[in-house]
Specification:
Layout: E1 4-5, H1 12-18, E2 21-24, H2 35-39, H3 41-56, H4 60-70, E3 74-75, E4 80-81, E5 86-87, E6 95-97, E7 102-103, E8 108-109, E9 112-114, E10 118-121, E11 124-126, E12 131-132, E13 137-138, E14 143-144, E15 149-150, E16 155-156, E17 165-167, E18 172-175
Parallel strand pairs: 3-6, 4-7, 5-8, 6-11, 7-12, 8-13, 11-14, 12-15, 13-16, 15-17
Antiparallel strand pairs: 1-2, 2-10, 9-10, 17-18
Helix pairs in contact: 3-4
């Protein structure tokens, strides 16, 4: 069984799906039953401990260091990851968070989707200066552009253009970028 890339099409949702690698279930049960084949029991246990520590550590420097060093996530040293933020436990190395990005309280960043007969894996990118509101869920394959804002309690299932304000379940545009200009914060 070989991996396939989900076909791309028009729209931001299809752009997200085009970045995902889709694979069939490893056996007759729902694909989540076979998570140990994809992530490993020992590695996942260590990741759980690191993510748990990171969720309660108030220091951004310590948290970012933990995530960069032990999870291999690409997190800028000046990113601000709030308390109780949960990074993907199986594929944290696929997460990128840019300089001065803010990820709000209890946000969940997923790089995997397990379904009954298959699973998908893809990167999540949060651009420099972006703000993710509290209790937001980001699905695999999404890109939040530089300086964009996602309101609290949103489900990000598509790309968010730089400098724009989006929110809701599922996420939708609330305000376009002012004058279609985005200031580089890097």
């Amino acid at each position: 069984m070989t991996a396939t890339t989900t076909p791309s099409g028009s729209g931001r949702e299809n752009a997200r799906k085009s970045r995902l690698v889709e694979k069939p279930s490893d056996g007759p049960r729902a694909s989540l039953w076979y998570w140990r084949h994809h992530a490993g029991l020992f590695r996942t246990t260590l990741r759980y401990i690191i993510i748990f520590l990171g969720r309660v550590v108030p220091s951004f420097r310590a948290k970012n260091w933990l995530y960069r060093t032990f999870l291999k996530a690409d997190i800028h040293r000046h990113a601000a990851i709030g308390l109780e933020v949960t990074l993907d436990i199986f594929y944290p190395q696929l997460i990128t968070i840019g300089a001065d990005a803010v990820v709000g309280f209890r946000t969940t960043i997923l790089c995997h989707e397990y379904m009954t007969d298959r699973y998908r894996v893809g990167p999540v990118v949060i651009g420099a200066g972006a703000t993710i509101g509290a209790n937001t869920t980001l699905l695999p394959g999404v890109i939040v552009g530089a300086g964009a804002t996602v309101s609290a309690m949103s489900l990000v299932n598509r790309d968010i253009p730089a400098g724009e304000l989006w929110g809701g379940v599922p996420v939708r545009q609330i305000r376009a970028a002012p004058n279609n200009e985005v200031h580089d914060v890097s």
